[in-house]
Amino acid sequence: xxxxxxxxxxxxxxxxxxSVQSLSEDRLPEGDVTVAVEYSTVNYKDxxxxxxxxxxxxxxxxxxxxxxxxxxxxxxxxxxxxxxxVVLTGWRVGEAHWGGYSQxxxxxADWLVPLPDGLTTRQAMAVGTAGFTAMLxxxxxxxxxxxxxxxxxxVTGAAGGVGSVATAILxxxxxxxxxxxxxxxxxDYLTSLGASRIVPREDLNxxxxxxxxxxxxxxxxxxxxxxxxxxxxxxxKYGASVSAVGLAGGAQLPATVIxxxxxxxxLLGIDxxxxxxxxxxxxxxxxxxxxxxxxxxxxxxPATLGDLPDxxxxxxxxxxxGRVVVDVNA
Length: 330
Hints:
The chain starts with a strand and ends with a strand. The chain has helices spanning 44-50, 121-143, 161-172, 187-193, 226-233, 258-262, 277-290, 293-299, 308-316, and strands at residues 2-10, 16-24, 33-41, 67-75, 85-89, 104-107, 112-114, 153-155, 177-181, 197-200, 217-222, 236-244, 266-269, 300-304, 323-327. The strands form 3 sheets. Strands 3, 4, 5, 6, 7, 14 and 15 form a 7-stranded mixed beta sheet that branches. A 6-stranded parallel beta sheet has the order 10-9-8-11-12-13, sandwiched between helices. The protein has a two-stranded antiparallel sheet with strand order 1-2. The model has no long low-confidence stretch (mean pLDDT 96). The longest helix has 23 residues, at 121-143. The chain is 28% helix and 27% strand. It has 330 residues and is of the alpha/beta class. The protein is built from 9 helices and 15 strands.
């Protein structure tokens, strides 16, 4: 039995090349469950793994794809049986372990979750790690007191995958969403997702010498980090929280502790990779109930395995809007 997969190889000079290849099943890594993959998606990490590796890939040849959804073919674990629909995000699959850019995957049962009721495998991958992370970020803000009516909620990097889903979820929950983007042509797209205001990136991407500015935001989902996050921290309302989900603007944080000490601001780190099982189920349940499927569909760009090398380069340059759904069997 053979299957198709996107395989990344590295030559003696350290250069990588990605191509779709036919592989035999004995090439699959060890694991408890073999899944017939139906859909995957494209995240920033995927762009790194398709291309230079970004320090994430341990050995070559490698099959990237940090997310997938499909149907169980075989299982050595009682929790899953052939025919079950499952979803995988995180656990360093697609980085240290062969991932979802393949018609078959073999993984540990602990890494899977059942496909939530009300979602198809395609919709689950329209969500993917980006949408899962967005939901975790919203849940963290809620756990720290955010409720509709508190004021505007800021979403930075709003046209990206995490930002798009966060915007749609927050708007659906009744929040006024201020969406930050450096791409003015995306204003209509963000408004269609529910954003009530568009904030140009240049309004926030410069640091200020003042540790505190006017109290503006009741909450924030930040995918940018760097100077923008430092600026936003000084604009949060008293007791408000920022969910930090990314570092598109840099890993440094040129901030002071003043917002934490004088306004009780909370900086909440969001990790989707190693989330415990129970919280994964909670987040996926919330996604099925609180993410409007029509808004999700509006974010989707379809793709095939053959499209992935170009998409990997594009997402690293900030050129991918919303969510990409990869039909690995097309």
